[in-house]
Structure formats: C-alpha cells, structure tokens
C-alpha cells in the first residue's frame, strides 16, 4: 500500500543532514511515479533516487492483490475496493506525510499527516465487498536521516483499516534496503480509525454514570440555591495573572510547612504530649480525606474516560504515557508513595508532589510535638535547633546527588528528602510568626524599601542561577551544590515577603495577595494543580499539525491553559472538593465543652495569647 506514500512524493534517504548546505528546488511529481533530485554541499553531490514502489495504475490494475502482492486477504480485498473509488484513493494517498516537507532540516523530524482527512474516509460494503475505513498510523514510517541510522524522520501513513504494518512492508519495493530493515522502519503501534475508542468499556460506563450523578446533583443544588437565595446573588469578575519561576514548587512546600506549623501552634501546642499524640490519627485522616476525593475522581477520569474525550494523531501516544502506569500502580497513588516506590513509572507525573507533601506531613509531628513542649521556656534554643536541623537537611539531597547519581539520573527531584529543608524552613517561620504575632516590625521607612529591593534582586538572581546550573554547569558536584544551596536562599526571600506582608509593610504585594478575587481564586489552587496537566495533555493530544515555537506563542498558550484549567478546577472543586469539606466538618465537629469558657484550656491558663483577629 506504498501507493499512498512514496510513489507520489519524493523522499530524502540515507544522507548526513548535518553536512547539507543547500537543496536544489524541483517540482515533485504529485502523480504516479517517483522522481529524482540532487543534494549539494561544498564537497560532494548526491544523485539519489527516491524509494520506488508501485504506482497507482500498476497496483490498481492487479486482479488478485492478496496473491500478487503477498498481503493479507482482508487488506487485499480492501485495496481492491479503494481502487474502484478514485476520489477515496487520492484522498487516502494525500493523507500520507509528504517528504521533503517545509522545515525538515531545522524545525522538526516529525510529521503528523492529514489525520482528520484519513479518518473521514469510509466506504460501505458494495457487491459483497468489505467495509473500508481510513486508518491513520502516526509516526508509522521511519525514514533514515543519516548514514549511521542514528536518527530518523518519523512520518505518518494512511491505509485501509484491514492492512497491518506487515502488509505495508510487503507492499514496499526497495531494492537497496533489506526486508528486515524495512520491517523495523514500519509500525502500526499508534494507529486510529473513526471507530477507535468509540465503545465504552464496562468500567468506563460505571465511571461515566458516577460523573453524571455528580453533575445532576450540582444542577439540582444550583437550581435550589438560585430559588432560595436569588435576591442575595452578586455578580463577580474573576481573573488572575501569575508569573512563575523554576522554584515555584519549592514555594508550595514552604507554604505547606508554614501553614502546618502556624495552625498547629495556634490550636494544639498548649495540649499535653499525650493529647497531641492521641489527636495525630485524626490529623492524618483529616489530611487524607482533604485531598484524596479530588485525586480519586481525577484518577477515574484519566484511566476510564480520558481516552474517549477527543482524537488526534498523537492522542494514543499521549495517553499511553500514563494509563499503563496508573493501572499498574493505582494503589501507590492512594498510599502517596509513588515518588519512592515507582519514581520512573509515575501515574501522572505531577502527582509526585502529593506523595512528597503527604510524607513530610507524616514526618512533621516528630519535630513539632517536641517543639511544643520546650518553646515556652527555651524559645531561642528551639529556633537554633531548628536552624541546625535545616542545615542538616541540606546534606540529604547533596549526598544523594553526588554519591548516588543513579537514584535520580535526570535530576527531577521527585524524592522527599530533596524538599526537607524547604518544608522545615516553612515550619520554622510559621512557628516563629505564630509566637510573635504581636511583635513589632523592625524594618520601616527607607530600610523597608531597601530590604524589598534586595529581596527581589536576590530571588531573581537565584532563579537565574538555578537556570544556569541546569544548562551550563558540566560538573555534577558543582551543579548539585548549587541546586541544593539556592533553595534556602529562595526560602529566605519568601520569609521576608511573608513577614513584611503580615506586618502591613508589603505594599502592592500585600494588596494583591489580600484582594477578594485573589482569595476566591486561591481556594481553587489545589484543583488547578490536579487538573492543569490533563488539560495541557488534551491540547497536545488533539493537535493536528506541528506548532511554530516563539516566546509569544508560549505565553499565549500559557494564558489559555491557565484559564481553561481554572474553569475545570472550579467545576472539580464544586463537585468533589467542597462536598467533602462539608462532610468532614460534620464528622470532625468539636463537641461542646462542658465547662464554661473562662479563659482556661484543659484546666490550665493559656500562655500564648491568641488575638481575635488572628483566629479569624
């Protein structure tokens, strides 16, 4: 069935493209036979014949395709049907990738063909003939780009749905290449027809019904709320702009540790050690129930429904990246151990953060509970010990990177020990801020402006240095030391920004972070994080052509991805996160105290004063 590819369009083969400086332009035959062209460089001239196969006339003139072409019976019969329909034949041939194509020397070695055109082809049975559907095989044909066969052009082809890769191999008539090599250059691993993923499995139907039930509940609840609270409704406009950096993930670990310590020393630190230990299971269950429902529904969607929401030449390849891992290691997703148990086969790569964060949460009581027993009398000592502990935490990732390079050869840093210092610097600052909630701000006036300028410059320099360490530092040791040490510097910048804003000296930063619309959108951050990657994957999987890369296009795509993820996150939060929060409040609602509230707690006077505004 090479009639639909190489016989109609000339091809480059077996040349070293790095030596090419000029290609002679010629008119390539869009008809039936292959032409010849030349490629010149400063030293040599190559007169190369294209890969010759059957032309359309000779192939379609055969009476018995199966015996003459040595293809399968189904494929042979379908070829015969296609040959009777000239328009379908030409459309199928036109859907193949063309080579040479624009930008093949510098832009991309991949071509997707005409995916929609191929899948639109359909011939119903006629006179006992078979039914024929167009089948697009993305990256199904590899054309060697170098003499050493180290690089290839990956092209796509369109054939009748009954033809396999072995049939395509048998149809190719190339005298210069052995059959074994040809069989390695043709595959049908990423093929699709109009009926691909058109039938839902039993599991997919069950998951779809679950989502429909949630959708109906949301609709009925919205109608009820509208009828009851119609007069109280207010219109609001939501928007958000966020500039991120390479160290954004460390920011979230810092915030997580900060909030944990701040809330813990607000509500639990005055209790005895025994009571704190008793409440640990409740804390863990609360944390697990807080994040797992959203992850569970995301998991069900990604495994059972995502392959049915679109189509494209890359659709199968994109979703094959995670579906096998999710099905194989589903239990590690919900135990939050992916980053250590299966770090190279993670189900949705961004979920590693949840594993690391949950593990740090389980580890934190070993530090926080002893702190709660000694900080009232030995506050400075506790702060010093925390600082020493954070310095020690820097050694774990440093030793891992230098002495165990095979543990994380790509330096993705999915492991928890790489985030210890970032997380516990947040714990240390949250503890300090809670204990000094009424303390005075030492930087005022010009000094505050100077501190802000220094902080911004340092954080910008850290971001730049992190980027340079990834690209330009060839030494493993220097790169490891740099990447480990710049994280505390980044966290020090976050500490000053947070401290200045809480004391009312944050200026426009404090105003931005306390705006009502930012606070509303901030409630969606967890769901945005969960759904942002599948929304990006959906865009990639449904692309039909190559994209031209520019900084503006990248920013333009980012804006679209962000706001689309925000919309999906709002739906996800209202459907699965908010209901669980309400249920959890009922389950963990504190029992009314039998004693009058006379300023005592557990029979003892509270030492740390909690001002009313800090508890709101």
Automatic annotation (TrEMBL):
Q: Where is the Nose resistant-to-fluoxetine protein N-terminal domain?
A: 72-193
Q: Which Pfam families match?
A: Acyl_transf_3, NRF
- UniProt-listed SMART domains: NRF
Assigned keywords, A-Z: Membrane, Transmembrane, Transmembrane helix
Alphabetized InterPro entries for the sequence: Acyl_transf_3_dom, Nose-resist-to-fluoxetine_N, O2_lipid_transport_reg
In its keyword annotation, does this UniProt entry include tRNA-binding?
Answer: no
Could you name the domain of life of the organism this protein comes from? Eukaryota
Q: Where are the transmembrane segments?
A: 204-224, 244-265, 285-304, 350-369, 381-400, 420-437, 449-469, 489-513, 520-542, 554-575
Q: Which residues form a coiled coil?
A: none
Protein name per its UniProtKB record: Nose resistant-to-fluoxetine protein N-terminal domain-containing protein
Q: Report the source organism.
A: Hypothenemus hampei (Coffee berry borer)
